[in-house]
Amino acid sequence: MKIRVGIFDDLLLVTKWLSESLSKYEDIELVWVSSTIDETLLKLEQKPVDILIADVLTGEEVGLQLFESIQRIKLSTKVLAFSQISDKTIIDYLYSYGVSAFVNKNESIEELYLVMTQVMCESKIPPRQTVVPPVL
């Protein structure tokens, strides 16, 4: 059975890269892509997905609002936070908002896929040591 996936990110380059990269996996079905919280909530209602890959910080919105809404309406969708955040306290905080897993945007697509398959088998995946960008 294919894992049905939705993507929320405000950057077209990111959503396009994710869409193309995930298309190489036969057990992944990309159902939709959205760029706003309202659009994401509407799509989740109209076309439910197994996993939502969601950015935490966008240009106009904070993903916490989305995570809280998903938790409040008790959707079965598992949320995978996908962000460049590297602060462990903030990442831990995301889990209290119903996030099932966290993957840093600096990780490989293979790591993202691995976490996606794991989150389908477990309710929550503890945060891993993420790749932190170098300090300039």
Which terms summarize this structure?
136 residues; alpha/beta; 5 helices; 5 strands; 39% helix; disordered C terminus
List strands and helices in order, with pairings:
Blueprint: E1 3-8, H1 12-22, E2 28-34, H2 37-46, E3 51-54, H3 63-72, E4 78-83, H4 88-96, E5 99-104, H5 109-121
Structural notes for this entry:
By secondary structure, this protein is α/β, with parallel strands linked by helices. It has five helices and five strands; from the N terminus they run βαβαβαβαβα. Strands 2-1-3-4-5 form a five-stranded parallel β-sheet, sandwiched between helices. Strand 3, helix 3 (63-72) and strand 4 form a beta-alpha-beta unit. The chain starts with a strand and ends in a 15-residue tail after the last helix.
H/E series:
EHEHEHEHEH
- Average of the residue pLDDT scores: 85
Question: Which class of secondary structure composition applies to the elements?
Answer: alpha/beta
Shape: globular
Note the main sheet: 5 strands, parallel
- Topology, number of strands: 5
- Helix coverage percent: 25-40%
Q: Work out the helix count.
A: 5
Q: Beta-strand percentage? A: 15-25%
Biggest sheet strand order reads: 2-1-3-4-5
Summed up, what is this model?
The chain has helices at residues 12-22, 37-46, 63-72, 88-96, 109-121, and strands at residues 3-8, 28-34, 51-54, 78-83, 99-104. By secondary structure, the protein is an alpha/beta fold.
